[in-house]
Amino acid sequence: MSNLKLSKQGNELIKLYEEMVISGYNREDGLIVENTYNSFELQKFRNLCKEHMSNHSIKTVLDYGAGGSDWDAPDFEPTNGASAKQFFDIKKVTSFEPSRSQMEKLESDCVVCMDVLEHIFITDIPNLVDELFSLTKNLLVINVAFYNAKALLPNGENPHITVRGPDWWKGVIDSKAINYPEIKVLLICSQDWNNGVVFEPFKSKDWHSANKYFVQQGGWIEF
Questions:
Q1: pTM above 0.85, yes or no
Q2: At residue 25, does pLDDT exceed 60?
């Protein structure tokens, strides 16, 4: 298991998220939410990710920052009632969620990190992204939000504490991908719940096969 060391602020944030899981949280509009982070964030991107995750080389998944995701629950695919495991043809899933005391991190064919990085203290992000790569054998799927959440931390701050644009996140990911040339990366950046951009999937080894020195960032599509 990888053993990531967080900053003082990073460890404090985990305690705040643990408190929110137990006690619920307040929203900016005054509402109180009792069920914290129970949604399966990957579900809305299932069709986008299926092409990359449903292949013979992806049989194990690490859900990093899993929240309340349940890969065995029915209706991940509403049209036929398939679970996430069935939909992606996955054999084994490990869920890492420190706010719920799920601490196992197994190296897997695919690592999924959905709506996590924006919750991380900024100085911890480079090391955490490096850990994501180190735990991945084939495919790394990241979704990061770059907008303020409606929720509030117990101290009154917004839980999206590192809000940066898509280019910033792409730069962070690229700088770590250099050391993992065989890992395919799918980066999704959400501007709000329904909109954002998806960068063209890449492996850093492909940069070396270019016949010129300038390496383009990679295009994106809006969703």
A1: yes
A2: yes
pLDDT at 2 (0 to 100)? 60
Q: What is the mean predicted confidence (pLDDT) over 116-126?
A: 98
Continuous segment of H or E residues that includes residue 141: strand 136-145
Closest CA to 170 of 191, 150, 189: 189
3-state secondary structure of 131: helix
Strands 32-33, 60-64: pairing is unpaired
Confidence of residue 1 (pLDDT cuts 50, 70, 90): very low
Alpha helix positions (H), the chain:
8-23, 46-53, 84-88, 125-134, 166-177
97 Cβ contact partners less than 8 Å away, ≥ 6 residues apart: 63, 65, 66, 67
Cα 223 from Cα 159, distance rounded (Å): 24
- Computed over every residue of the chain, the mean pLDDT equals 93
Q: How far is CA 61 from CA 109, 129, 208, in A?
A: 6, 17, 28
Decide which of 217 and 93 is more confident. Answer: 93
- What is d(CA 44, CA 11) in angstroms, rounded to the nearest whole number? 30
Query: Could you please report the per-residue DSSP string of 107-119?
Result: -EEEEEEES-GGG
- Between CA 196 and CA 220 the distance in angstroms is 10
Asked if 220 contacts 190 with a C-beta cutoff of 8 angstroms, the reply is no
